[in-house]
Amino acid sequence: MGITLSGTYTALVTPFTAAAPHDIDWAALDALVDAQIAGGVSGLVPCGTTGESPTITHEEHKEIVRRVVKRAAGRVQVVAGTGSNSTQTAIDLSQDAERAGVDAVMIVVPYYNKPTQDGLHRHFVTVANSVKCPVVLYNVPGRTGIDLSCDTFARIVESAPNVVGMKEATGNVLRAQEIVRRLGARVTVLSGDDALTLGMIAVGARGVISVTSNVLPRAVSRATKLALDGKNDEARKAHFDLLPVHEAMFLEANPGPAKAALALRGKMSDAVRGPLVPAGESTKKALATLLAGHEG
Q1: pLDDT tens digits, one per residue of 95-120
Q2: Which of 138, 225, 259, 284 is catalytic?
Q3: Which of 5, 31, 141, 146 is the most buried (most CB within 10 A)?
Q4: Is the pTM of this model over 0.85?
Q5: Nearest-5° angle of CA 277, CA 279, CA 284?
């Protein structure tokens, strides 16, 4: 479908102003996009879970996607998060992102509703058929409460030719392995867990949609490339060097720690929208210690 997914894709945070009601900090978003591209990432993923999609309005969502596409200006791929627990909302967001010029859209498994596997099949095929651009699915049962099975994914792929990839965030390398074994010639698997990227690439994944790369784009991009290039010893060392940072990104609810780390580096405020709260002092201290040894 006209896209090759490979490398490091940053699940962009959405910067907010420090003062309530925490409006979007557009200048900080532009600077974040520029820093990611300078750091060598392959692509940008605005408006995913890390971008606090549940607490931005639909109009904000659409404007963020437009802004990221405009700022990226073709320098890297843009894969916009457009999922929802409403099929019609996911269609609306996906069609608007397509009009904005994204390279692909990413659709998360519907959260809270807990649809059956047949419901998931119908949801994803309906949304995918509403656009012409490539579609990446996002399975993260720890957040959505429901798991998209490999069998159902295979049915979706058969019914929707523009479904080209999966952000795999079950926390299980065996799931990534099964998708690659069954569908590897047809779809691309991207790790949805920074800490599992090395293992997933070992069984056939082609990269990562990363939280940590918001803060350390160059280091994450390097580690991913080493793994993809089969430089196993160097890749293992780079991965282990980053592992404490990956773990620190989830000391509290994402994206609180990522925003705290960016705030420590003077890139944006650490503001998040409720019901999230900014990362606590113990997390900030841990991040400051860990980041002292990393330039990017």
Answers
A1: 999 999 999 999 999 999 999 999 99
A2: 138
A3: 5
A4: yes
A5: 165
